[in-house]
Design brief:
The protein is globular. It has eight helices and 15 strands. By secondary structure, it is α+β, with helices and mostly antiparallel strands.
């Protein structure tokens, strides 16, 4: 089956799916997006993703030209048209075509793009053994400049931090905020376990409120695991008993080293394994 890309209510083959080179999403990163997982032919927590998309869009003054109900139907239709049982959705809304200047008032026709594709995960051995992290010198955007709760198309600081991680031989990198506290990784939220308590940075640490993050917090509370959203430093990660990351693509994956320091016993811990299994059970449902 040839891949079908949705653009503004129409479907195109991958090679024919095009937007204007004057689109401000391309020229200036002026737009918002969501990345979503497909499990057993259904999009995981679609409504939560769409609410976050709408909130990001409202925050940057970008009016999405269709309703949430219609976009819900369109996303589900795109999954069916592409025959995906398990996969990934990239939903993008751009400001639309404008002039060679940043004035958004000169833009017209916001572009709604839905890409449904197969998912590329971390290698299986990383899920079995855990991954290494390095702290990036690139920090998260200052919240007074751009709210980290906006999932915008401008991901350059994440890209730069990702490059630092890859150069250090790590597939992920830890990003600090403007205060020097732990924020998140380049594409994942971070958790630690300390003396049986599950800890993760709060929203005001400059993080994106991840959909998978929230699902894991819910699962932990249901399992009777104490959870707290609190300011964390790298010291807290160095002395943690366990550490793991969460994200739509990553799901739940252990981190066993940070900056060449072993976390815990250097293996995925029992609470990490418990929550990983609970999450996998949740998505299978």
């Amino acid at each position: 089956m040839a891949q079908q890309i949705y653009i503004n209510g129409e479907y195109f083959c991958k090679d024919d799916a095009k937007i204007s080179v004057y689109d401000h999403g391309l020229l200036y990163g002026d737009g918002v997006f969501e990345g979503m997982r497909i499990y057993s032919g259904k999009v995981f927590r679609l409504q939560e993703h769409l609410v976050r998309l709408w909130e990001s869009s409202l925050s940057i003054g970008l009016a999405i030209p269709i309703t949430i109900a219609q976009l819900t139907a369109d996303v589900n239709e795109c999954v069916i048209k592409n025959g995906l049982d398990d996969g990934y959705i990239r939903l993008v809304v751009t400001r639309g075509s404008g002039s060679l200047g940043i004035d958004p008032n000169r833009c017209s026709n916001p572009q709604i793009i839905i890409i449904a594709d197969k998912i590329t995960l971390y290698p299986n051995e990383l899920y079995e053994n855990g991954l290494d992290l390095v702290t990036a010198s690139t920090i998260r955007n200052h919240p007074a400049a751009l709210s980290p709760r906006i999932k915008s198309l401008n991901y350059l600081n994440n890209v730069m931090a990702k490059m630092e991680g890859l150069k250090a031989g790590c597939v992920e990198a830890l990003m600090l905020n403007h205060k020097g506290d732990v924020a998140e990784c380049t594409g994942d939220n971070i958790f630690i376990v300390r003396k049986g308590q599950l800890q993760t940075p709060p929203i005001d640490a400059g993080i994106l409120e991840g959909i998978t993050r929230n699902a894991v917090l819910e699962l932990a509370r249901e399992a009777g695991i104490e959870t707290v959203e609190t300011t964390l430093s790298r010291h807290d990660i160095y002395i943690a008993d366990e550490c793991f990351l969460t994200g739509s693509a990553a799901e739940v994956i252990a981190a066993v080293r940070l900056d060449d320091r072993v976390i815990g016993n250097g293996k995925p811990g029992p609470i990490t394994k418990q929550l990983n299994e609970a999450f996998r059970k949740l998505v299978r449902q």
